[in-house]
Specification:
By secondary structure, the chain is α/β, with parallel strands linked by helices. 38% of the residues lie in helices and 19% in strands. The chain folds into three domains: 110 residues, 4-hydroxy-3-methylbut-2-enyl diphosphate reductase, catalytic domain (Cobalt-precorrin-4 Transmethylase, domain 1, 3-Layer(aba) Sandwich), CATH 3.40.1010.20; 84 residues, Rossmann fold (3-Layer(aba) Sandwich); 85 residues, Cobalt-precorrin-4 Transmethylase, domain 1, CATH 3.40.1010. It has eleven helices and twelve strands. The relative contact order is 0.19.
Length: 316
């Protein structure tokens, strides 16, 4: 039986970013240095396949520091943690390694610098997301006000409208964030923004690739976890860019093939915490059903690399 033809538009960049690569490497190097088990507070990155693989190697994932014994190393996830967490680890004399993405750490430093200058912070982010919790936890309670929408800006109650600065979660929609920033500047003309955009290069690049792919695609599939902020934003970007069917899938077996009946072109990308092996798995699943032509949609090239903490590079 002849397979129907299908063009698979493959986004580039896609998948792992430098912060995710660094975080995974930190867990692997910690296991090599101290042996199993090594504890990890929260999922090191938001991807079940990655987390399960590290668990098989001896990592134990917990939600709170209280769940970790004092005599084993603990790693803080790439999303960052409130200041109280490393302070408690130090009090318990634990060995701990911070795998916070350097671009998230940059936002933490910005917040602290503005606070030292007497400014109250407004954070654009998603309530309850680990990165937002970690960033807001860099300063005392009440010093960081969270907004998620333009409507939230109108309802903000600030201490001094002339003494404000804003920061953002690194994995937001570029376009949605721009609207919220415009609303902040309209209401608070003196508000100070970051010297360089807080939304990270990987989030930006992956969203640009989806925008380029959307007009060419009958459907877009984003490989990523349902708790991955940057992956969910890629789905939203695909829809906003004109692709009527834009869906998040974790693995090839999650694809709704009936929904794809009659399509001639599918866009494929992956969130920043999804490994290339899952992309290859999905491509293979399409090849089993279609006569596939792969077309690379490359909108940027990435060569960013982050060093692991010195503690892992030194002998025991």
């Amino acid at each position: 039986m002849t397979k129907p033809p299908l063009t698979l538009h493959l986004a580039a960049p896609r998948g792992f970013c430098a912060g995710v690569v660094r975080a995974i490497r930190i867990v692997e190097m910690a296991l090599g240095k101290w042996g199993a088990p090594v504890y990890v507070r929260h999922e090191i990155v938001h991807n079940k396949f990655v987390v399960d693989g590290l668990r098989d190697k001896g990592a134990i994932f917990v939600e709170e520091l209280a769940d970790c014994p004092s005599d084993r190393p603990v790693i803080f996830s790439a999303h960052g943690v409130p200041k109280a967490v490393p302070a408690e680890a130090a009090r318990r004399r634990m060995i701990y390694v911070d795998a916070t993405c350097p671009l998230v750490s940059k936002v933490h430093i910005e917040a602290e610098r503005h606070a030292e200058n007497g400014l109250q912070m407004v954070m654009i982010g998603h309530e309850g997301h680990p990165e937002t919790v970690g960033t807001m936890g860099q300063l005392p309670e009440g010093e960081v006000l969270l907004v998620e929408t333009v409507g939230d800006v109108a309802a903000l109650k600030v201490r001094d409208a002339g003494r404000l600065a804003y920061i953002t979660q690194t994995t937001l929609s570029i376009d949605d964030t721009a609207e919220i920033v415009a609303a902040l500047k309209a209401r608070f003309p003196d508000i100070i923004g970051p010297h360089k955009e807080d939304i990270c290069y990987a989030t930006t690049n992956r969203q640009h690739a989806v925008k380029a792919m959307a007009p060419l695609s009958d459907a877009i599939l984003v490989i990523g976890a349902p708790n991955s902020s940057n992956s969910k934003r890629l789905v939203e970007v695909g829809t906003a860019a004109g692709c009527k069917y834009s869906q998040l899938v974790q693995r090839a077996h999650d694809i709704d093939w009936r929904a794809l009946e009659g399509v001639r072109a599918v866009g494929l990308t992956a969130g920043a915490s999804a490994p290339e092996v899952l992309i290859e798995e999905v491509v293979s699943a399409f090849r089993a059903r279609y006569d596939v032509t792969v077309n690379l949609i490359e909108t940027a090239q990435e060569n960013v690399e982050f060093k692991v903490p010195r503690a892992l590079r030194e002998p025991v």
